[in-house]
Structures are given as structure tokens and as C-alpha cells.
Amino acid sequence: MRHDGADPVRVLFFGDTPHRLAGAQRSLLAALTRIGAHGVEPLVIFPGPGAVEEAYRAARVPTRIVEAPPSLLLFNKRLLALGPRQRAELLVREHLPYTRRLARLIRDEGYRAVHFNTSRGILIAGPAAKLARRATVLHLRGAPEGFGRGFWGAAQLLANRIVLVARALEPGVFPPFRRRCAVVYNGVVEQPARDRVAARQAIAARLGQPALAGSDETLFVAVSSLTPFKGLHHLLTAAATLRARGVRARYVLAGGGGDTRYEAWLRARCTALGLDDVVHIVGFVPDPLALMAGADAVVVPSVHREQLALDGDTIDVHGTEGLPRSILEALSLGVPVVATRVQGVVEQLEDGVTGRIVPPSDPDALDDALAQVAADPAWRDAASRAGRETARARFTVDAAAAGLAGVLRAAVEARS
Q1: What is the mean pLDDT of the segment spanning 110-130?
Q2: What's this model's pTM, rounded to 2 decimal places?
Q3: Which residues contact 111 (CB under 8 A, 6 or more apart)?
């Protein structure tokens, strides 16, 4: 209950991605651990079991599984790919009964608002909230590139309020809906001062590379899903150039739940560039902060928009970053960051102070920044201290929880 004595507002959170514990899910989880102190009583509904529901339950956030039809468990991708007639049939056969079921739950258990952590989530369950005549809040955590203008418009139309994790996302919202927006930065738990030596020893053991523990190689870590818009192919190109320049460095790429074709291509490219001995692609790790803590710098080489030649095909890559969580976590640990200038990155980092910011899709600029970081341990130490201060001042979990609670309560009051 809130310290001012007001009754808490019951809010249903719809978690449409039960199996993938990525930055968006981790950011919401962090806020929900503190949101009760700001007058919100949460329940998180998942359409099926998975790692996300397990993590929320382990953090003692109230959860429940309300099983959804198979078409909705595929993030609505099946629905989006169908023709108009097939889509209508599927909506009547599978989506409509699920909508009615959720609407009854919302009404019968007294939830005053429904929160959606993704645009697909509000398309799946937003109609249920509308049927129950409850306030709806959409959390926009990245640019809506490639989503389809019609579906993106429908998602905004269903939302009474839109939470932006960065000011840079506002231009992606259609003008008529911008008055519904509020910026609430994600929060990160303040970390104790890191023991870099111990963390590096743990990484060496994890990789089966005992020599790494006492090596003077610069260690760069990237934590992200293995998808093209994360720009890891540019990191490999930069790594090859750094080696040719005589810079001794090692790279750990951690993350799961990505594009299997891209991952296979990335591994093949690593071999073709002769980097297998210094680049370690380790897949999903449950404790990414443990990897970051041993790094000399965290690298976030995301792209905005580019064309990528992938196994003989040319694919259009559209970046969807908002406020990369790996940057917040690096700041909280006191690890400098090298990142590209996409969306909210400039709202997180101060170039030259807490990190280095380079243009996206520019491996030469990335290579230069990495070389500068590798050559300047004094700068790394100063950036480490500045990063921790930034995280402490601007990106706390309590501030994120308070901001989200304020938007939810405003949405409820506007409908009262």
C-alpha cells in the first residue's frame, strides 16, 4: 500500500512473450519489484509457460498463466502473415473466445488498467481490455520499424496512454497520439563495486581459457540477441581490423533467442575472418552482469537501417532499439560502453565521458573507438566512475517504478 494511505490500483500486465527473457522483459520485471510502493498492485498474465514467467515468479511478482490459442503464442506472427479472409476466420475461431475470457477476468477481479509491454501484446489482448472498459497503457520500448503501418496504427489506437523509454522514440508515434505519451526511463539495480579480477577469472573458467585470467588483452563484451539489427557483424569486422593493427583484444558475444540463420552466418564469418581464437559466441547466459563485470568495455553496435548480404540474399535490416538495457547495466557496474548513435543511446551515454558513441553501420568508426578504449586504461577508470554516478542519478529502479505507476494511475483517473 502507498505511504499516503491511498488504496492501491489493481493493474493487469499482459506478458505476450513467455519464453524470451530479453531486455524488455527484464526492464519491466525490475519496475514491478518496486511498483507496489507507488500504489499499484500488479498481476502479470502470460499466455503460456516459459522462462519469463519463471523469472517473474522467482522475483515474487504475482503471475498467472491464462493459456492462449497456438496462433497467439507465436507472437501474432501467424496472424500477421495470413490473408484477410483467413485472418478473419482465425480471429473468430481463436482470438474472440480468448478476448472474452480475458475481459471476464479483468472485470471480475477488479483490475482498473491493463499494461502491454509490446505492440503485439496490445493487438492480442487490447480488445479484451476495451471490452472490459478498462484503461490501456502501451509500453513502447523500441522503434516500431517493420511492424506494418496499419498494425502499428491499431496498436496506438488501442492505447489510452503510451510510455516511451526514450524521448527519441516520440517521432515514431503518429502525431494524433503523441499527446498520450510520457517518457519513463528504464531502471537498473545499483551494483556493488565490481571485482574485475575475480569476474575475469570467472569468464576465463566459463570459456575454458585459463590464460585469459591473467592476460593483458582488452576484453570486450556484447550482450544481445543474435539478430541482424544488433550489428554484431560490424563488431566482427572491427575486430579483424583491430587484430591487423596489432591491438590485443578478446570478444565475448552473449545472447540467445535470436535469428538462427544470422547466428550461423555470424559464426561462419568469424571463422572466415580468422577470429575463432579471440571471439567467443556463447549463446544465452542467465547472468549477463557477471560477463559485463569482467569486461574492459561493453559494446552495443546496433544499426538503424541497412542492407545486409546474408548467404547470397540481400535483407533489409531495420533497427528497433529504444534504451538498450545492456548499456544501463554496464553503467551500473562501472563498465565503459562503446555504442552506436541509435534512438535513446544519446540519452544514456555522454560521449567521451561514460562511453564512446559512433555512427551506426560504420565498422571503421567502431574500430577506432575500440582501439582508443583499449589504449587508455586511465580513461576507462574515469568512465567507470562517471557511469556509476549516471546510473545512480538517472536510472534507478525506484524512479522507473514511480514513473510507470504515475502513468497507470493517470490512465485510470482519466477514465473515471
Answers
A1: 94
A2: 0.90
A3: 10, 11, 12, 43, 105, 132, 134
